[in-house]
């Protein structure tokens, strides 16, 4: 709110003389006022006028102030408007009830003008400060989201890698990460990782992972070497109880050999050109926890037109405690069902099919689809 704007106060009282009294206190001090004589009218005006604060009488016909407050707090459009109760009920029980259902303060009737002004000013200032902090936080998360998106490689940036991706963070920023890197002229590396947790702290680590992946990628490094290099650094920078699961796959486009290394990550899924499927499962450690990480590698020989999928656990375990085996079966079925769909649309359709079949999704969704070039 700029300095020239008048804070707007909604006065809710079924007694006109009380409304005029409060208007006489507030308006000369630079406050704008609107008035309602019932709870229903107050709720309608709150949605339309978006006042900075509500002075709410408790004893009203049809709907008490407590009931009005509860309804205002249950509506996202009005939930953040601070409410000060006004009432001749001066007992502790009434005051506590008002505060528990969402009121920020309580003024006893008959009101004192100086007290009303002091309390209104304090709570309007607090509300304005909170709103400003929310806007700053939203702007910060948006800039962080844009920065995170900027470091993600796009299929059009690397067409010879023949991949498509669907990435939907649960929050503005996510802890899931993918990358596609040129290991050499013949080999492409495909990497998917999931940092424990969500939000800014997890998102900050994705840029570090990207840098490490490139540092430890090239002719001098096997897939296992790359993963161990990432692990060595992540053990130094991850917070307490944080860890990283990852799957890294090298595809030699000339020999069509696929080498897969997993670090505590869900199994890679392969769907042949004929529609046959297999999962590449390994018993290995997450990164960033143990002083000596245990990794496994498996090599496969693929054919032209085969596809393989790397993904984060949100694709198969949408909520804590969900049946991961069932989720994996659903993912495999979706990959088979969309086998004939062009790759750039298949990843999105698979993710949408899985999301639509579930009541809730409580994790980031990441699916990286790759096709062996014809």
Q: Which features characterize this protein?
A:
374 residues, alpha/beta, Rossmann fold, 2 domains, five-stranded parallel beta sheet, 9 helices, 24% strand
Task: Give your account of this protein's structure.
- The chain is an alpha/beta fold.
- It has 2 domains: 133 residues, Rossmann fold; 221 residues, Phosphatase 2c, domain 1 (4-Layer Sandwich).
- The protein is built from 9 helices and 15 strands.
- The strands form 3 sheets. Strands 2-1-3-4-5 form a 5-stranded parallel beta sheet, sandwiched between helices.
- Strand 4, helix 4 and strand 5 form a beta-alpha-beta unit.
- It is elongated, with a radius of gyration of 29 Å.
Summarize the structure.
The chain has 374 residues and is α/β, with parallel strands linked by helices.
SSE layout and pairing:
Blueprint: E1 8-12, H1 16-26, E2 32-36, H2 39-49, E3 53-57, H3 65-74, E4 83-87, H4 92-100, E5 105-108, H5 113-150, E6 163-168, E7 176-182, E8 187-195, H6 199-215, H7 223-237, E9 244-252, E10 257-263, E11 268-271, E12 277-280, E13 296-301, E14 307-311, H8 324-337, H9 343-356, E15 365-371
Parallel strand pairs: 1-2, 1-3, 3-4, 4-5
Antiparallel strand pairs: 6-15, 7-8, 8-9, 9-10, 10-13, 11-12, 11-14, 14-15
Helix pairs in contact: 2-3, 5-6, 6-7, 8-9
């Amino acid at each position: 709110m700029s300095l020239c704007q008048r804070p707007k106060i909604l006065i809710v009282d079924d007694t006109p003389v009380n409304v005029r009294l409060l208007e006489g206190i507030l308006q000369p001090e630079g406050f704008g006022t609107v008035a309602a004589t019932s709870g229903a009218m107050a709720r309608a005006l709150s949605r339309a006028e978006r006042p900075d604060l509500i002075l709410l009488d408790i004893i009203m016909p049809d709907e008490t102030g407590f009931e009005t407050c509860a309804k205002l707090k249950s509506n996202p459009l009005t939930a953040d408007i601070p409410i000060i109760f006004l009432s001749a009920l001066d007992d502790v029980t009434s005051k506590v009830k008002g505060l528990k259902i969402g009121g920020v303060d309580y003024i006893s009737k008959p009101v004192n003008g100086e007290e009303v002004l002091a309390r209104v000013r304090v709570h309007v200032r607090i509300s304005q400060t909170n709103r400003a902090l929310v806007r700053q936080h939203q702007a910060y998360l948006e800039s962080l989201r844009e920065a995170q998106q900027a470091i993600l490689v796009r299929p059009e940036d690397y067409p010879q890698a023949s991949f498509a991706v669907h990435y939907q963070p649960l929050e503005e920023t996510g802890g899931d990460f993918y990358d596609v890197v040129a290991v050499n002229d013949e080999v492409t590396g495909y990497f998917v990782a999931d940092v424990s947790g969500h939000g800014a702290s997890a998102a900050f680590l994705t840029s570090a992972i990207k840098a490490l992946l490139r540092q430890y990628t090239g002719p001098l490094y096997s897939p296992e070497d790359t993963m161990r290099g990432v692990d060595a650094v992540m053990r130094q920078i991850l917070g307490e109880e944080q860890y990283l699961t990852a799957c890294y796959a090298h595809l030699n486009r000339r020999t069509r050999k696929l080498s897969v290394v997993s670090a505590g990550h869900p199994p890679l899924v392969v769907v042949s050109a004929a529609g046959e499927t297999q999962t590449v499962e390994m018993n290995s450690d997450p990164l960033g926890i143990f002083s000596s990480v245990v990794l496994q590698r498996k090599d496969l020989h693929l054919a032209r037109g085969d596809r393989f999928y790397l993904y984060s656990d949100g694709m198969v375990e949408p909520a804590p405690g969900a049946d991961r085996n069932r989720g994996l079966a659903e993912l495999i079925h979706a990959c088979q069902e969309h086998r004939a769909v062009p790759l750039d649309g298949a990843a999105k359709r698979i993710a949408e099919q899985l999301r639509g079949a579930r009541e809730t999704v409580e994790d980031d969704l990441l699916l990286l689809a790759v096709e062996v070039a014809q």
